[in-house]
Specification:
The protein is of the alpha+beta class. It has 4 helices and 8 strands.
């Protein structure tokens, strides 16, 4: 598995993630909330060794003074492995220069806590977490 960093409006990003973000099953997992991107976003995309098959994605938006992780996707079969890899990569890229804030699915809280994130706010289905260097 490889993790590639792609700009939020790059044509490669669109080509790789479009089949997933338009999938009814993936949208259901995201509680029917649409995926968004912009020039302020960077996406970590996990690819099979063939470089074409997407296993998951982790959008990160640069905001004033912090990096914001939201609306990520990992398949149920590989969620622990992928989240572990995505979080490590995000910490390597962003933690040295700014705090990270993540909106996390409730069933993924423990994985983020093991990586040093702490809970800031809880909702019914999601939790807002923060990582400070």
């Amino acid at each position: 598995m490889n993790i590639e960093l792609l700009g939020g409006t790059s044509s490669r990003l669109y080509k790789l993630v479009a089949p997933l973000v338009m999938s009814a099953a993936v949208l259901r997992q995201n509680n029917n909330y649409p995926y968004k991107t912009s020039v302020r976003h960077e996406w970590l995309v996990a690819l099979e060794d063939d470089g074409k098959t997407v296993k998951g994605f982790f959008p990160i938006e640069r905001r004033d003074g912090y990096a914001y992780i939201n609306n990520y996707y990992v398949s149920a079969e590989t969620e622990e492995e992928l989240l572990d890899a995505f979080i490590d990569k995000a910490l390597t890229l962003y933690a040295p220069t700014c705090p990270l804030v993540a909106v996390v699915h409730s069933h993924h809280i423990e994985i983020f806590q093991e990586k040093g994130f702490s809970i800031e706010r809880e909702w019914k289905l999601y939790v807002k977490m923060k990582y400070m260097r």
